[in-house]
Each structure stands twice: as C-alpha cells, then as structure tokens.
Task: structure prediction
Amino acid sequence: MRNGKLLFLFVLLTSLISCKNRRDDAARYIPKDAALVIHLNGKSLSEKLPWEEILQNKVAKHILADSSVPDFLKKVINHPQESGVDIQSDIYSYLLNDSKGSMYIILGPLKDASKFTAYLSSFKENKVATSGNLQTMVNNFAATVWDNSRFLMLLGIPDFKNQQTNNLEIDSLNFKKFLKVSDRDLLGEASKLFKLNEKESMKRDRRFGKMIRNEGDIHLWVNNYALINEFYNQSSISVPFNMDKFYNNNFYTVTIRFENGQIKGESIHYTSRELTRVFQKNFSKPINKDIVNKLDGKNLAALYFFNMKPEGIKEIINIQGLTGLVNMGAAIAGFSIDDVVKAFKGDFVFAVNDLKKGEKGIPDGNYLFAGTILEKAAFNQVFNGIDKLLGLSVGSEPSQKIYHEVLGNYFAIGNRTTSVKRYLATKSSPIPEWEKLKGYPTGGFLNLQYLLNTYQPADSNKSLQTIYNLNIGMWDNLYVYGGRSKNGGTQYSFELNLMDKNTNSLKQLNQLFNNSFEWLKKEDFIKKKLNETKEETEVDSTETFKQIPTPYSP
Result:
C-alpha cells in the first residue's frame, strides 16, 4: 500500500512538472544566440482581447484594404482559425543575426496540420513540397517548415543599409517592396532551425525557462551582447573599453501582464559572474528612506532615486581597464576616482516639482538633485572640481541657474535656492509615492496626468486637442522599482496605471491605437511632418551654402 501511494505521488508530480514545462518545448527550436525572443500567451491574450475586437480596429481594416498586402496574409488575419494554427496557444517569434544580415522567425503550434498545408497550398506564389516527414513552403520572402504539431516560418529582413528609404510610400504599408530581401537560402535556413540540436537551443537555458514559467501575457528575452555586437558591426564606431567583458552573458528577461486599469511588468537583468558580484555587493542595498522623504510631496511631477556605492563604479572601471583613462580626465578637475569613493555614501535622488510650460515650450519647474556625504573634505574636493568644469558657482537668485548647499551629511543642487534650502531643512516625512517604492535600491515615479495637464495644447489647435484628449483620458502614473537580487540576476518592476481602473488595459490600448490611427489618417499627420522636415532641411542647407565663400571671392 505504501509503495502504491509513493508510486501515485511520483506519477502526480511527474505529470505536474510535465504540464508546467510544456511551454519549454518550443525553446528547442530557438537558438541560444537569438538576439530577441518574444513569447505571446495566446490563451490569456485571447481572453483579454478577443480577435473579433482586433479586426474591428482601424489599423486591421487598413491592412486588409491595402492592395500591397499579399492575399494569404489577409486571409490569415481575417480567419486565423482556417489556417490551422492554434492562436489560443503559445506563439513565439525571434530575431537572429548573422553575416548576411537578420532573420525573423515565427514559431507556433498547429491545431490542424492538414488545414495548414491546404491553406499554404492555396496561393500560387507558395511552392509547397514534402521532405521526409516534414512539409515545406517557400516564396520570395519567406520559408516555412512544419510537421503534425508545429510550424516554423522564417522571414528574411531587408538590408536597409543598401535601400533608398525615400522610395517607400507614406500612404501605404507597401508590403511588396518591404519584403524584398537579399539573396539567402530561406528554406535551407528554416529547415536547419527546425532540426536544431537541443544543445544549441534555449532549451538548456534555465533563465529562459524561468522566464517562460513566470505567469504573464507577454515574455521578452533580450540578448544585449547579440544586439550591441550587431550594432557595432554595422557602424564605424569604436569604443575605448572591452565590450566582451561588459556585455558577454548579458541578458534581460521581461514579463508583462495586462490587468484591469494597469500594465505590470517584471524584468531580471543577468550579467557575467564578475559583474553580478559587483552589482550585488554595491548596488543592492535599499535606499536611505530619509533622502526620498525629505522631498516636497506637493506638485511632484517626477522622482528617481538610486543607491550606488562609488566602490562599485570603481570596480567596474577596473574591470574595463579604464582606471588610468578616467583618472586622467578627473585630474583635469583636480580629483581622482578614490576621492569620489571617499566623498559619497551612495544615496542619490532627483525630483521635479511645480512643473509648468516655460518660454518656447521649454519645461520650467523646481529641479533638485540631492545625496548623502561620506567625507566632507573629499566631497568638497570633488564638488569644487565639478564646479570648475561646469561653473556651479553660488550667486544671487536672478542670475543663478544652479544653486548648491550642504547641511550635515546631505548636499542638494537645484535651480531654485528656496527648494534647495527647504529640502535640507525638512525633516523626513513619508510622501505618498514612498509606499510603493520603499525598501528598494532604485525606484522612480512619473505623474503622467501632471505632465499632460502642463502641456495642454491651445484650444484653438483642434487637431492636437483631439489626440491630447485621448491621452489625458488614458494615462495616470508610472512607478518603477527594483535592484534586488533574484534567480542569479537583478530584478526590476514597473507599474503603469491607467485612468480607467475597471477595464482591462489591453482593451484600452486597442481602443487608443484605434482612435490614434484614425486621427493620423484624418490629419495626414505623417506626411505633413515629413514635408515640414524636408522644407526645414532645404532652408538650412541653402543658408549654409550661402555662407561658404566662392574660391576666388575677396
């Protein structure tokens, strides 16, 4: 009997683990060097925003009415269930970079493989064939491989470096021009990915697995090294530090959830063991609460705080081999890295109060930056050096743009003497925003309603007033916080709150996009802006050439 119970428990646990890891199976088809991976939780997204509602969106209707969009894409948009794809399951897409450029891959489950085959075969541009136990399709811009349960579609991304962007039409999505790609064996690449060796796939990456199992509507995997490396390969920019040391094994995992009245997200930043040790040692301590709660909570437009021990910055500079170069630069101002380490405890805060529209649309308000001092002598040396470089001299209020003062172990810098003095003299008293931000090494708040109200367009500008009303009725505020260690990385979270607290945020976003697109089309906004930019460029270039003397001018 006891053995029977143990056997039952073992079977139950195995079943649960298998169910929990089912999503991980798709990772078998994703290379471990993918630059970007996007996972869509089809079941959850369909419940929050049914496909029927998406089809009513003006953007969807515009795509379906565009003559340049291939018929087979229109058909799958209109009737996704007829394609044989299970849109209420997990859909993945990912970006790959290689020496020939980039490829975008879509990976998903099949509800009916025969329907999928029939669907792709119904379009004359598609060449459908059988290869062993697999089916294949290829056309001018895509290749697809599938079996009875899964498909993999590869899209070649155009080489924009060698294309004339001014040939693109503004009033059309222009799919036929956009989808022309450089010479590449699309079917060969797709087949290779479908038969990818598991050792070379994301299946073995525990960080990816933990991200996918984290409950959410959308998951993002960002390979910073692959993205940054591709950027530097495409440009002539050179960097003075060892990029491999800083970006190797550097990833972000992101989980996004659409809830009633808010969009919530969680991110974990993974780095090399060496950098992770530095971060956990120097940047993971909760902020000193007093440095935030000394702020003026009235008319608070934005705040951001962070705990960052200068020792950590010094260690990172050492890892990059930049100590000598940085010290040379600091020596010009009369201090060194060691002076910075001695000067600051590591608690810093930035805040904006009393924001209003200033002259020529430039924001005006009370800007304050404050922090804690470790050794006053070292602080004075560092600050005097910065003062020397930037001109932070103390002066009278009318002519003084930046004012600074020290009181006890606090310093404050601002554009108003009254706000600086008030901050230093104020005793710590929790501001409302602190409740969600307390206990974290880094955090911030943005009062979106305040910002939108500050920049309300004139009543006479009916066009901008329309789009303004859409946004002020949508956005409330934003919180970001994090810096704690989790799963071998550093965790960060955000909470974007909307004005309508009762409707799911995904439905609200769909409606906002719908109304905004309608406004863009009605106002022909994009074309107007491009024409304005073109006119300004022509004027500027004309004026510039006027100033160039002719070869034999006196």
In short: The two ends are 109 Å apart (CA to CA). The CA atoms of residues 262 and 320 lie 40 Å apart. The mean pLDDT is 82. The longest strand covers residues 344-357.
